[in-house]
Sequence to fold (93 residues):
Amino acid sequence: MDRLDKSVLTALVKNFNGGPVGVSTLAMAVGEEVETIESLAEPFLVRMGFLARTPRGRVATASAWMHLGIKPPLSVQAANDPNLFDIDPDIAQ
Fold:
């Protein structure tokens, strides 16, 4: 992870509470061009599982929060919980 990646991730979590935030706002927060964020930082952060691109904007995943050493809010933890909507087999019968 280079300086730009860390700056984007830190701004997303600390300045925008994990998002969602538009890419132009995020670019202004880190002092970079939108194209730089989209072509350099975003692909890496998405591949690493730290950033999700949604219709409402960029969102930090629970992994991103933990990577920065910050406990994610409950809403982020729940959204990233793979078992959240699983049905208990004992209840389903």
